[in-house]
Amino acid sequence: MLPSMAECRSAGGLVSTPDGCLYALGGHNSLAIYASVECFARYGRSRTPGRLEPTISLPGNRRAGRLLLPDFSSITNNGGGSGMITQNNSSAVSVGRVAQSLPVSLWFTVSPMQTPRCRHGSAVLQQHIFVAGGYNGLSFLDSVEYFDPNVGPDSRGLLGQWTVVTSMNVPRSRVALVATAGHLYAIG
Questions:
Q1: Residue 3 belongs to some domain of the structure
Q2: Is the pTM of this model over 0.85?
Q3: Which SUPFAM superfamilies would you find in this protein's record (predicted)?
Q4: Looking at residue 38, which CATH number applies to its domain?
Q5: To 5 degrees, how large is the angle CA 68–CA 25–CA 152?
Q6: Are the C-beta atoms of residues 127 and 70 closer than 8 Å to each other?
């Protein structure tokens, strides 16, 4: 049986790293939105297997964002909401570096998405992070954009650049996005 997390989370994120850790990020409990991050070591070299460890928190509270591990050395948390009101969605993107057998020790902010969104799909294709659909607090979205981490820094000192591409044929919220064989597929 797995240990209980320190906080009950709804609309949080979960990602697995190559060194066998599961990271639970953000989320809410209907009263508060979390910035906390917890790491569960399934197995590991310097960590005790089966132990839940707190790690450094996100730069801000986040719920309903999307997580990716695009290059196996960083966790990317994109979009989501920072308040209990759904109109308070974020275009913010945070990146946490993952060192072999060590928890995330630093989060930094990169260029924001063009469109604030939560409940969107997110996938990695050809070393770019794509986001599709979601909800902006007023309506469901059909827009798609991708992040190039190799651009920048911009005038604000932020790395990366988001570029809008062809929209989906219909707006989608709570959409799943997957990349395979050089194509993106949106479901839901």
A1: no
A2: no
A3: Kelch motif (SSF117281)
A4: 2.120.10.80
A5: 45
A6: yes
